Amino acid sequence: DVKVTQSSRYLVKRTGEKVFLECVQDMDHENMFWYRQDPGLGLRLIYFSYDVKMKEKGDIPEGYSVSREKKERFSLILESASTNQTSMYLCASSLRLGGHQPQHFGDGTRLSIL
Amino acid sequence: EDKVVQSPLSLVVHEGDTVTLNCSYEVTNFRSLLWYKQEKKAPTFLFMLTSSGIEKKSGRLSSILDKKELFSILNITATQTGDSAIYLCAVEETSGTYKYIFGTGTRLKVLA
After folding, report:
1. How many angstroms separate the CA atoms of B34 and B105, rounded?
2. For residue B85, how many other CB atoms are within 10 A of its CB?
3. Residue B13 and residue B111 in contact, taking contact as beta carbons nearer than 8 Å
4. CB-based contacts of B34: which residues, under 8 Å, 6+ apart?
5. Lower Cβ count inside 10 Å, N or C end of chain A?
């Protein structure tokens, strides 16, 4: 079974802090994704990556950056956290783009910015 | 702008009822439609649909896609309390790069 692991289930940070959310997958998947999930808005794509060191902006990249130095790890960085970034963050991976493959999700990180 | 709309937003039923969840989409470069179930943690994959009119079935759950009318339905028969969850619909699109567009989800609560 595919395992997508997010480093923290709950995280509390302060406004202005630099925040790192880590995601690791163990199935050699090419593609990795970061979403945020808010009530009434569903899942919105922040960034995705289809290869090591490659990244693409999603629908709401402002205030975020990502890093993919190794195939199995995809990090989301909040450069200077703000209260409107309080949300549930979900990481996902899929085998390869265009291969009719479903995404596999981590359990999520509930991030609160005070 | 591409979008995926799910209805109803929430639903409360009693055990044994049958429910139908709807997902309509306006996506320019459609590739597939996916259904997920989300309980307290990670969304888990249910179905992927690529062709119209072919029903996918897994136990009490089934789903079908209509690519002409641009919608899909997810049916759950003989509901159980364990079916209580958020059901997410996503469309995979291929405008240059591949990505998934999600609806807001339908929150289903099944009462004993």
Report:
1. 12
2. 19
3. yes
4. A102, A103, B45, B46, B47, B48, B49, B89, B90, B91, B92, B100
5. N
Residue burial A18-34, b: 16+ Cβ < 10 Å; e: rest: ebebbbbbeeebbbbbb
* Cα gap A45→A22, rounded to integer Å: 16
Please name the residue of chain B whose CA is at the shortest distance from the CA of residue A3: B42
Tokens representing residue A66 in the block: 């990502």
**pLDDT tens digits, chain A, 114 residues: what are they?**
668 999 899 999 999 999 999 999 998 899 999 999 998 888 999 999 988 989 999 989 999 999 999 999 999 999 999 999 999 999 999 887 666 778 999 999 999 999
Q: For residue A102, is the peptide bond before it cis, meaning its omega torsion is within 30 degrees of 0?
A: no
Neighbours of B104 (CB within 10 A): 20
Query: Residue B99 is nearest to which of A58, A107, A108, comparing CB atoms?
Result: A58
Closest-CA distance, B17 to chain A, in angstroms, reads 26
Q: Does A97 touch chain B (CB under 8 A)?
A: yes
Determine the 3-state secondary structure of A84 from DSSP.
Answer: helix
